Amino acid sequence: MKRALSVTREENFPEWYQAVVDQADLAETSPVRGCMIIKPWGWGVWELVQQALDKRIKDTGHENCYFPLFIPMSFIAQEASHVEGFAKEMAIVTHHRLKAVDGKLVVDPSSELEEPLVVRPTSETIIGDAFRRWIASYRDLPVLVNQWANVVRWEMRTRLFLRTAEFLWQEGHTAHASKDDALEETLKMLEIYRELAEDVLAMPVMVGEKPENERFPGADATYSIEAMMQDGKALQAGTSHYLGQNFAKAQNIRFQSATGELEYAHTTSWGVSTRLIGGVIMTHGDDDGLRLPPRIAPKQIVIVPMLREKPEDADLLAYCEKLKTELDGLSAFGLPVRAHLDKKPTRSANKRWDWLRRGAPILLEIGPRDMAGDNVTMIRRDKLRDGDKVISTGLAREQFLAQAPGLLAEIQKNLFDEAKARLDGNIRADLKDFDAIAAFFGAASEDDEKSGFKGWVRAPWSRPTGSELEAIEARLKALKLTLRNVPMGQGQPSGACVFTGKPAVEEIIIARAY
Amino acid sequence: MKRALSVTREENFPEWYQAVVDQADLAETSPVRGCMIIKPWGWGVWELVQQALDKRIKDTGHENCYFPLFIPMSFIAQEASHVEGFAKEMAIVTHHRLKAVDGKLVVDPSSELEEPLVVRPTSETIIGDAFRRWIASYRDLPVLVNQWANVVRWEMRTRLFLRTAEFLWQEGHTAHASKDDALEETLKMLEIYRELAEDVLAMPVMVGEKPENERFPGADATYSIEAMMQDGKALQAGTSHYLGQNFAKAQNIRFQSATGELEYAHTTSWGVSTRLIGGVIMTHGDDDGLRLPPRIAPKQIVIVPMLREKPEDADLLAYCEKLKTELDGLSAFGLPVRAHLDKKPTRSANKRWDWLRRGAPILLEIGPRDMAGDNVTMIRRDKLRDGDKVISTGLAREQFLAQAPGLLAEIQKNLFDEAKARLDGNIRADLKDFDAIAAFFGAASEDDEKSGFKGWVRAPWSRPTGSELEAIEARLKALKLTLRNVPMGQGQPSGACVFTGKPAVEEIIIARAY
């Protein structure tokens, strides 16, 4: 078989990533700076991610709603840390009319807004404003809402799915009567993100708390799931924030408690975005293109008839139509199997590679000989580069139908296991000090992205704060390293903090990151 | 029973509308001019509308995708009529940074964009730009895409759902090799909109072609579905446009035909929006609030236990839980029944009115006596104002379970039939000239919105164009009247045009409108 992509992961990982996005027909850049066009195949993946997560969000008692795209500038200024973190690079609407001058369109200066509007970079302030109106008594709590929306952050260096000016996400926002309730909510949604990443996207993650300097602006605690990409970098794939009473105090979100006192609510927020698709690409893609976990593959089983523009084609198509109907009647993962018959007039060999690059989990190529023997020829996308047994020929149709749901489950598991082995096998936990860590990662050269796989370091630390933490951050930054998170559920660490030499209180993940 | 709303339709229709939106907890105004907050109950309705339409869009071969929120100002200028129609009131992004000056946030003047960006009012131009890149040969056609998105039009006078600065919609965009193919697509989607309105929303519509002066800016033909509200006004509930080669020529969307020539593509676009929810309210609402057709009711059957804060409550709740589980196992309209058990500590009488105002189709009130007899007490929302038989008491639980899916279908049909009778019975087709029409509608006083039901007029006309049409429009406008559409499938009209006196070629609908 000919190779599908022009560049391998080892040759140049960033270029390989771009080639997969392009060749798998997931997305493309648009004429609007930093904004992407998500093409049907990429959108199909996102719809399946949305469905899986939306069900979990609703099953845990949250309700969807929708808040305005625009936020008055004065709202952004309400929460001090929030200003620091978000009031920088945003899209700002200042006028509301164009007019023609000498046959050219210009912004009409007379249409200037009294107060500029910011295109939402996140919605804590506009939703908090509604919470203030909605909440009067402890009986109104908890308020548990979520929205699926587009947000804009004016990023300077963009990369499709991973960092774009406009991106799509869900943002959950909740208000509670107590810190305990709000913390429980924060961790509940973190667990749902872990489940989404691992069970649906087959992307194993490290679940933990971000260090102080990496918190969401205005949060008392931020938790994340971090995934290991095939270049060893970490990808923050979802975050859940306990906002304490910070936003409640800034926005006057108060309630009368059961004992009659006025108290500030405790709020949370949590979100995942189209960035997850970037994570799927860099977790499962190979040098032939994308490999999609069956749960998020818009087409799980693709039938390609080997048409020859001859009269016999009609019989072959009828055989394939029947096969598709049979597959449509099957279930996998509790949902109908998504089968597709590719009847386009493209050459069959091109179709094969189109679907393999796109990552369809199972490809069935059906020629006259398959039909004659009531067989199918099957290609398993996950095994494509393993060499033998990639193509099963002469597989009885009946037998394939009986096995198909199980095969999809096996492919889902296989992709997860492969990624899980990579994650577990590439976390160095034996480095004792900063110099050893620096030596492990090597110099941060301009082209370090091409310099091969490094993995992560898990190291004991003393949980420094303030200026001590800032100094550590600066040292790490010079090596292009970052503190990712403090994994949950860890025991008492042994040894001294790799940064401060003080007794360690926990272990933290250090990595290069997207 | 006490009346649920403070104002009736007859007393003041616009105030009644606002009261329903508010009291049924559908949406509220936001601190951002013209933008609404869609609350969970309203959003739940929209999700069901989306699901029903999305399935039909996909079943007809379209694929979903996503295009940028922003459109470069120069794109808007590409299609001349489009500029006329859309380049007026839009949200314009001119800067990308805020900065603090003397402790106050201001727009950073140094962050001015080289080219202003418009927040999409509709996406023909940015999607056409992609079509130009995607389409090379007739083999690439048709291109059939759709997106679910938010759009912004800077409206001066807004009303929740009906006219808001930001609204949510789907916009389909397609490109074809021939005029015939594109026209077929335009009418296919129009038919899907009719089906959505009538079969899903239970909202009967008049399907027809808009007159020349009401076309989408840049279209060769615009078709619409028009619904009759309970104040007699027309609501344009969906449009489908044949754009001819206008956008293709403006944007250079060309393909090589089978015979090797370069030709311009024929494009279409079509959309429906959250405005549909306004249509549902004004079609089905009554003086007690909203009545939801079961197909779009987020909760179809709501169980209210008559709790008394006594130990017996536990048994009653167990009875209700079991009932809910049984209802969850039923199907209606090919989907699982959406049942809800309201366990909130609110007083039962308040709950009754909460759910009736929200329009839940069936309410089950369960007290100790119902439980003792293994019965339910049922309130049918659609019959609430009919007087007798509203409440069925002593209905055996088993019997109700057996009847529930059929009852939901009956309610759906009942709401449609009621609205259909109103539409069919209130179109005057016997008025012979403009004066008779003017007399029928009466003066356009400031408070004509409160002046009672008028209905529509269907009148023969000669299909005038250009300045002749403009003059007619002006006369109609003085009476706050508009030309709605020319109904499809009509025969040869009799008589003379009510406007020009020339022989009529078809009949057109005249009405006051939203």
UniProtKB/TrEMBL annotation, chains A, B:
A single MF term (Gene Ontology): proline-tRNA ligase activity
Primary localization: cytoplasm
Biological-process GO terms, alphabetical: prolyl-tRNA aminoacylation
Annotated SMART domains: ProRS-C_1 (SM00946)
Domain Aminoacyl-transfer RNA synthetases class-II family profile per the UniProt entry, residue ranges: 42-293
Entry remark concerning the domains of this protein: Consists of three domains: the N-terminal catalytic domain, the anticodon-binding domain and the C-terminal extension.
HAMAP family (UniProt xref): Pro_tRNA_synth_type3 (MF_01571)
Protein name per its UniProtKB record: Proline--tRNA ligase
